[in-house]
């Protein structure tokens, strides 16, 4: 009489364990060691602005959709980071040109030549360095698409190793000691970009 309930309970335990095992580590991004860089309410004083765009907060997200400077605009962390994990939830329009820049060497001049860039750019002419790639360093093939939906980036930088995980799938892995420490930035270059959650964990 008890066999069916026992089997049902055992099945439920197995399923729960499998779900937890398959869940990305970023589910703990609000746990010990994680620092929230955006609280869903305001662009706090932990950010500097480089370049001009219409950064604002709408519906719990940082939004930009109208660049007013000649080059891309960035929100740049005031703190520098060496070894860290960063978790970002973002929404991009199909024509968005954006990215997460890491270990930038000059916080006043942000480029893919002085930082590592985790790209968000579905319509890049050379898609091998489009969304999911580390521009100039690691190509992605096939290129995943970010446009028109919410996505996640989970990025780990530890020593010479940089790993990008886009929507739960590793898309790029780099070993380089070109840039070893620096701020993190959020970029708006074209189209519409929204950042709903930004958290970092120094390692």
Polypeptide structure, described:
This protein has about 200 residues and is mostly beta strands. It has a single domain (about 25-200), classed as Exo-inulinase, domain 1 (Jelly Rolls). Helix content is about 10%, strand content about 40%. It contains one helix and 13 strands; from the N terminus they run αβββββββββββββ. The strands form two sheets. Strands 1, 3, 4, 6, 9, 10, 11 and 13 form an eight-stranded antiparallel sheet that branches. Strands 2-5-12-7-8 form a five-stranded antiparallel sheet, with no helix packed on it. The longest helix has 20 residues, at about 5-20. The protein is globular, with a radius of gyration of 19 Å. The protein starts with a helix and ends with a strand. The model is unreliable at about 1-25 (pLDDT under 50).
Q: What's the CATH H-level homologous superfamily?
A: Exo-inulinase, domain 1
Share of β-strand residues: 35-45%
Give the SSE order as H and E letters. Answer: HEEEEEEEEEEEEE
Mean pLDDT: 89
* Helix percentage range: under 10%
For the record, the CATH architecture stands as Sandwich
Number of strands: 13
């Amino acid at each position: 009489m008890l066999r069916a309930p026992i089997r049902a309970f055992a099945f439920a335990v197995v399923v729960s364990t499998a779900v937890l095992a398959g869940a990305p580590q970023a589910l703990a991004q609000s746990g010990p060691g994680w620092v929230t860089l955006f609280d869903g309410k305001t662009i706090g004083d932990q950010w500097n602005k480089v370049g001009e765009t219409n950064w604002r907060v709408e519906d719990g997200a940082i939004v930009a959709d109208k660049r007013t400077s000649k080059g891309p605009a960035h929100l740049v962390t005031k703190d520098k980071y060496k070894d860290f994990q960063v978790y970002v939830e973002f929404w991009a329009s199909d024509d968005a040109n954006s990215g997460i820049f890491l270990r930038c060497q000059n916080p006043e001049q942000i480029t893919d030549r002085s930082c590592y860039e985790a790209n968000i750019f579905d319509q890049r002419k050379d898609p091998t360095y489009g969304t999911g790639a580390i521009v100039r360093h690691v190509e992605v093939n096939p290129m995943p698409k970010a446009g028109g939906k919410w996505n996640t980036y989970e990025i780990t930088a530890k020593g010479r190793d940089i790993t990008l995980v886009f929507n739960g799938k590793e898309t790029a892995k780099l070993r380089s000691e070109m840039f070893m420490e620096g701020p993190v930035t959020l970029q708006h270059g074209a189209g519409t970009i929204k950042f709903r959650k930004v958290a970092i964990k120094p390692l």
